[in-house]
Each structure stands twice: as structure tokens, then as C-alpha cells.
Amino acid sequence: MTSVRESRSRFRVVSTLAAFLILLAIGLLYLVLQNEQREQRQRMTETTEKRISQLASAVASRMNIAFRNIEFIMRELGRGQDIGPVAYRRFAQSLLSAFPGRAQLQFTLTDATGNTSFGIPEPPARSNLRDTPQFRFHLDHADQLYIGKPEVDPASGIATIVLSQSVMLEGRFAGVAIVRLSTNYVSDLLSTIELRPQDVISLHTA
Predict the structure, then answer these.
(1) Which pLDDT score, from 0 to 100, does residue 84 have?
(2) CA distances from 145 to 11, 60, 140, 164, 200 (A)
(3) Across residues 58-62, what is the average pLDDT?
(4) Cα separation of 108 and 178, whole Å?
(5) Strand ranges (E), 21-115
(6) Cis? peptide before 154, omega within 30° of 0
(7) CA distances to 51, 57, 144, 158 from 184, in Å
(8) pTM of structure
């Protein structure tokens, strides 16, 4: 009888110990899995951040290609050393020749009051651009290049990005040179970036 009780007692001890060891193993396994998931998320975050940095660098490089020629030519025009319709047409043709037809480049020049004085293609009618963001910007930032948000050109219906530079004549504000660059061209530049299946690049307003 005593032997039976001792056996039952040992069984209970062994069962309790086994149950404890099973629970301990489950807990350790849970901690290991949690740690692995945390490390995996960390690796994914680091990989994503690295890829974002790579894409941002690639986009910046393409945008530099798009705007470098425009900025250089417009800064030359902004110095006001060579003025008049012939000079303006030469500046405009230099811009147009630097970009493919899909760029849909448009060039407009205003006087100091905002009235359009020259354009390629020719403006549909004489208009005043004094209230536009780009003109207002140059009233206070004469030496800076303005780059606007994508917008639809009311004359052509084409989505464009506006770039502008003030024109100075003998140190005085004489107007604004405005270039409209089609977003199709920008999209074409971005499409040259080699993307992975999970990568997405889109052009949109902020």
C-alpha cells in the first residue's frame, strides 16, 4: 500500500515537473520567435530605408538633368545683358533645342508689371501674370530660381511644372522669364530608373 502511494506521489512530481518543463520550453520558444520577428522587422526596415535612399538619389539625379540646362539658360537671360525680341528668341530656341518634343516646353516673358511681352509658342493673347505665384515670388527673391507645383496649363490643357527666373536690367527688376515643362517629360526621366517589383515612384503635388 505504501509502495502504491509512493508511486503515485512520484508520478505527480514527475508530471508536475514535466508540465513545468513544457511550459518553460513554450515560453523560451515564444521569446525566440519574438526575437526573430523583431530582428526580421529591423532588417526589413533597414533594407527599405536603404532602398528609399537609393531611389531618392536616382530621382535627384534625373531632376538635376531636367532642370540644369533650364536654370543655366534662364540665369543668363536674367542678367539682362542681352535684351530684345531677337535675344529672347535665341534664349527660347536654346531651351527648346535642349529638350525632346515630348517635353512640350513653353517660354514666356513678362515685363515689370506682369504683362506678357514675348512667348514661344506665341501667347494666345496678351495677358497679365502679376498675380501668379511665380511672379509674386520674384518680387522678393530676385536671384532665386522658382520651381512650382505641377499644374494644368489652361492654354494647352497639358500638366506642366513651372520654372521661372527674374530678369534684371541695370540692377532693377524688369520682369520674369517663365518656362513650362511637361510632366510627361519628367515621367519619362523617372521611367529610366530601374525599379524592383515592390518599388513605386509617382509624381504628385504635396
Answers:
(1) 64
(2) 86, 17, 12, 6, 29
(3) 79
(4) 5
(5) 106-110
(6) no
(7) 25, 20, 25, 9
(8) 0.63
